[in-house]
Amino acid sequence: MKIRYNKLRKLNIQKGQVIEEIFRNRLLEAYNNYLIIGGMPECVVSWVNHKDPAAVSRIQRELVEIYENDFSKHNGKVNSGRIQMVFRSIVSQLAKSNEKFIYGAVRQGGRARDFEEAIEWLVSAGMLNRIYNVSKMEHPLSAFDKLDQFKLFLFDTGLLKHMADIDNGAILLKSNYQFKGPLTENYVLQQLRGQFEVEPRYYSDKSGEIDFVLQRGMEIIPVEAKGGEDKSAPSFKRYIAQHHPEHAIRFSKRGYRKDGEITNIPLYLARKTKNCSDVANDTFLFCTGKQVVSRGTKALTRQRNH
Question: What is the Cα–Cα distance from 35 to 261, expressed in whole angstroms?
Fold first, then answer.
């Protein structure tokens, strides 16, 4: 969304007001639409031209069928049936509160050796995004990867919504619905990838789980992803209380704000995470990631992206 700076100057910004709240409802609507439509070019073009969710769903169904047909035609070293089995298991894998990908959930009695090559094929093809669990949330994260513990997410959130058979009305009308958490995490990971030099990880042990772990330089940033405005996150808050990280990020539908040591970033700003975490604590980020309003003043200042 591009807003002319001259128009912004005419806005009546009240002292201490978070400027992005002016646009919050429209941005939340755009976020919900993205969960439904996703980013596949055919789906986006259809939505722009016709605004018909049913047409988008038909395209998503056709795309999934095309992918699965391509899997069946694969005649390389990797078994095509196992590629399809892994692909079809993603929804059920994400729906479970597993700390890692479970081979036995793909096929009863399944083991790593049965599906490792299929997973590598799907990850290399860009169909799945893999993130590793780390044994320690310390720099450098790669030194603590648990290579046998990882999660797999789909490359497009709209296709994941379709594969999970989530009705569009649940996303648009309900504050809570089944599979909301996994869909939100899939979206957040999509937005985080590529923003930082080191790919995101997650942390999970017997005491709890941190949804995502980011590395920026030598700094380690814990991340919590919430699909609504709920602030409860025991493991996340416990880690912050014990380690006092310089930055801690919670994604939710709440506005951009500081809650103690936690920076809440609206889900629709997830693609601007690096910019948001670069902004000083006494400022609020505008929805474009370029405009900042200082707390306690009416001065609208401009700040370039880092």
Answer: 29
